[in-house]
Please model this.
Amino acid sequence: MTPPGTPAIRLHDATIGYDDVPIVQGVDLTVGHGEAIAVLGSNGSGKTTLARGLLGLAPVLGGEVELLGSPVGRLRERGRVGYVPQRHTVSGAVPATVREVVSVGRLARLGLFRRLGAADRAAVGDAVAAVGLADRMEEPVASLSGGQQRRVLVARALAAQPELLIMDEPTAGVDAPSQHALAEVLARVSAAGTTLVVVTHESGPLAAVLTRAVVVDQGRISYDGPLAGAERGHRHDDAHCGPGEEPARPGYRLDQPTVAARTRGR
Ligand SMILES: Nc1ncnc2c1ncn2[C@@H]1O[C@H](COP(=O)(O)OP(=O)(O)OP(=O)(O)O)[C@@H](O)[C@H]1O
Ligand SMILES: [Mg+2]
Model:
């Protein structure tokens, strides 16, 4: 366990990039245990790079990055951190069922080559039920829709019952009822003490859960404070708002333009 008072995340003057090209620069950020924060910002601002840097998936080129008291990449119990990546769906060459994919999330906590016990199977069942896919448990993931596959990835992360949960656009492509269901799940997880970091373009459905926001602008943090303040500051960036037109829903919203999925390095 981490010593008392150690933050869940600590970045000091951190630079994260790819191939020695800095993308996220000079970031100072401390997230305490149990906090629930939104990471906001326009397309290409560096949100995913920041999340991947925390996980050791994008190189830290300078400064300090610590997760649960350990320098990035050195955390031994990987299951303590859950991650929902932005772009991946889970279909692929290997035909795996919903149960199998979510069980892999649980194995991350146990360590590979350990068998799942009754409590683990229950955690897998709970995680799948939490994302509303209990009736699809034995179906191949490839047969699910894109939004359902996103929800399988959320369940995979939840199944490990991580101390820190980092989700990159968990609601993208997910319908409104499922977004609200996810908000309820995250509220429960947060109330149980899990630290949440949610990258999102649409904090509206999660506004009751996420209290603090960090806005990334061209690789730098331009705002760090209450979520409501970030919403006010960015409302008029919304490309879908005409002059004098208010967004239909409360909450930060910046729709992603339709772009072909990036293929580089993913
Ligand atoms: N694997 C990579 N290799 C090189 N450059 C990358 C890679 N991934 C992202 N970038 C670059 O880093 C910058 C920030 O990208 P990033 O994916 O972090 O933005 P984002 O804020 O998550 O955007 P979005 O809202 O579209 O998800 C972009 O200019 C992008 O081209
Ligand atoms: Mg992104």
Q: What stands out?
A: The two ends are 32 Å apart (CA to CA). The chain has six helices and ten strands.
